[in-house]
Structure to design on (391 residues):
């Protein structure tokens, strides 16, 4: 039976992101409002707040594949599932429900999908339309906030649209967003702390921060905080750039150390941004050509480092953050292969989901409370389904 996450744990708010997509918008579990020392990566943190890497491969344990359900929209037939995210409370949405973006329309036209689906995390689930609209045309990301607001990213529309818990449009965010490829929620879980959403852009090779003041229901400010990632300007599903945004945080009392992980599908790299919540200014971090070196305006506050580069990464797009702090990345070329990495850049395992030459895996989401309960959800565009790997 599939691992049922209803009532089992609380997830730490993130880039959801936007799981998700493209990089799946997965979030490491944590006790959101416990202000004692908390680390979603484990204990014995080093001076930078990051815990020692867990070198046990979780991917090798995920041997059972379970079909959760179809992702085809029941009303307009949209298909081509991309990002996955999860509701972390029951408010409009139900705690544990999964949201999936549809990138294609009913005729399989890439970039014409306009829906976000809701599915329960159990086998034989049926999709329900959460929202449908032109604001999210070419839907690639669906970041979910602590309050279950949903940020839908439309690659074709060039917009990140904010919807409330019932799917009603609240705000639309455009420039400096031009061609979003992923989004993710980022909240450290501290009372009265700001909650940000990060949006990656395939056209400009940048990451935009949508920032709201604490305890505010108003419009977020938009700042292009990272630039210089590679872009390939390809059309449809093959567009590459910064994506797979994942957010992780460690908390000690009222202090928060957080890290943003970003996949660069052009340069085949995974990048970590330290103390991401400190990012405030335009182009505060600039990625040098090749994707391996970085110029940081205030390196003592926040900077980027290279986690991993090269094979077995091959045009990756989606990424998931495991409960133990490790990462799983999905390739879009050379077969649909998953790559498990530690935050220090050690390859722990690879797993080929299927042998199709076409790219099928564009969304990943890891859930669980520890190594033994971790599961991995993924979207499969060849079958238009949401699947789950479990132990």
């Amino acid at each position: 039976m599939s691992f049922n996450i209803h009532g089992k744990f609380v997830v730490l708010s993130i880039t959801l992101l936007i799981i998700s997509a493209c990089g799946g918008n997965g979030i490491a579990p944590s006790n959101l409002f416990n202000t004692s020392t908390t680390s979603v990566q484990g204990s014995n943190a080093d001076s930078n707040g990051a815990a020692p890497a867990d070198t046990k491969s979780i991917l090798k344990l995920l041997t059972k594949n379970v079909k959760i359900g179809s992702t085809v929209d029941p009303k307009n037939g949209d298909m081509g599932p991309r990002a996955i995210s999860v509701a972390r409370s029951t408010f409009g949405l139900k705690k544990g429900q999964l949201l999936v973006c549809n990138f294609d329309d009913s005729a399989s036209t890439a970039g014409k999908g306009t829906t976000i689906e809701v599915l329960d995390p159990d086998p034989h689930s049926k999709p329900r339309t959460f929202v449908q609209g032109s604001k999210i045309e070419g839907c690639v990301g669906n970041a979910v906030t602590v309050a279950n607001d949903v940020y839908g990213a439309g690659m074709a529309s060039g917009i990140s649209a904010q919807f409330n818990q019932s799917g009603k449009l609240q705000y639309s965010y455009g420039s400096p967003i031009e061609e979003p490829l992923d989004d993710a929620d980022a909240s450290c879980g501290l009372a009265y702390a700001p909650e940000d959403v990060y949006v990656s852009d395939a056209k400009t090779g940048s990451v935009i921060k949508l920032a709201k003041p604490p305890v505010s229901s108003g419009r977020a400010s938009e700042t292009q905080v990272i630039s210089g990632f590679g872009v390939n300007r390809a059309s449809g599903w093959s567009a590459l750039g910064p994506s797979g945004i994942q957010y992780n945080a460690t908390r000690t009392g009222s202090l928060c150390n957080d890290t943003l992980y970003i996949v660069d599908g052009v340069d085949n790299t995974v990048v970590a941004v330290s103390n991401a919540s400190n990012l405030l200014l335009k182009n505060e971090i600039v990625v040098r050509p090749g994707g391996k070196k970085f110029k940081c305006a205030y390196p003592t506050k926040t900077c980027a480092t290279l986690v991993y580069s090269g094979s077995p990464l091959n045009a990756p797009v989606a990424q998931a953050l495991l409960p133990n702090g490790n990462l799983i990345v999905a390739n879009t070329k050379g077969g649909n292969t998953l790559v498990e990495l530690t935050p220090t850049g050690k390859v722990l395992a690879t797993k080929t989901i299927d042998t199709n030459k076409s790219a099928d895996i564009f969304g990943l989401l890891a859930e669980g409370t520890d190594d033994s309960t971790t599961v991995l959800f993924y979207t499969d565009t060849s079958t238009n389904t949401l699947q789950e790997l479990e132990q």
Summary: The domain at 48-390 is CATH 2.120.10.30 (Neuraminidase). The chain has one domain: 48-390.
